[in-house]
Amino acid sequence: MSSTPITIAEALSGNFDAIIDVRSPSEFAEDHLPGAVNWPVLDDEQRHVVGTMYKQISAFDARKVGAAMVARNIAAHVEREVANMPKGWKPLVYCWRGGQRSGAMAWFLGQIGFNSRQLTGGYKAFRAHVREDLANLPIKTQLRVLCGRTGSGKTRLLQALARQGGQVLDLEGLACHRGSVLGGLPDKPQPSQKRFETLIWQALRGLDTSKPLYLESESRKIGQLRVPEQLHQAMREQGQCWWVEMPEAARVQLLLEDYGHFAGDVEGFCAKLQALVELRGKETVAGWQKAARAGEWASLFSELMRLHYDPGYERSLRNNYHQLDQAPVLALEDGGPASLAHTAEVLLRSA
Q1: pTM, to two decimals
Q2: Which residues does the annotation mark as catalytic?
Q3: Fold for domain 4-132?
């Protein structure tokens, strides 16, 4: 049985038992089709070796060396992965452009007798499809945008809404970043821009347009990642704002919980504060760094909120969300489960 090429539209609507990305591990890590597994026919080092030979010696010599590597790698994947697959197993195979790498894997699987398919245009075609969708995909459901000061529990409220069946798009969760100069997660690097966009695209494709979509107000950038412009514009122009409030003492407690990891990396925290010197001045930032080194976290977070985050965030919100003054207020007593669950229930009932 031979492999049959298919288009990206057929691939996204098809029913496959596996989606196999045969690119190198680094290519796969940058981004890949939803649900794909990585069976590289050339690993990163092998790809570098073959590419160097192609440029410096000849295409023919590079293909000879590369063919042996590809054959050995495919054999290893077949022995490890497909020994127990039934004859009716139907995999989709792709590489960067739908060329030799995916062609080789798809051919081998087809020769065994599997109904393998090769994606025409490969990942490049998928990436173009994602970009086009994000630029043109209309947001056909009502957007409910949670606005509020830093530490007011917006992200936790999104999570509570999701637990109660609400339709949520957690952009900070997808970006692995809390959205401020201190917002990087200690154990989770940000994905690539391509991966971030694929995750957003995947979420938007699965929307139930009969239900509102809850998301948090965001700047154009979350850490190093850009929110797709069409989505950001829809949030500003179509979104119904809800103002989330929490008493200052509870906000400080929430920040102590969410940013507690900095107690084990005080110098890393102080280094991040250096980015605020231009806005707040050397003397003010030096005072914050001194408080961090002294372990005065509660008073430090309180002052950061009052002098830095609250003024800047509210100014940005009012510039971008002109209906903010008419926003209904959601009052959270604190960031605990009971308060979050109750407020989420109130918000869902208003849908």
Answers
A1: 0.92
A2: 95
A3: Oxidized Rhodanese; domain 1 (3.40.250)
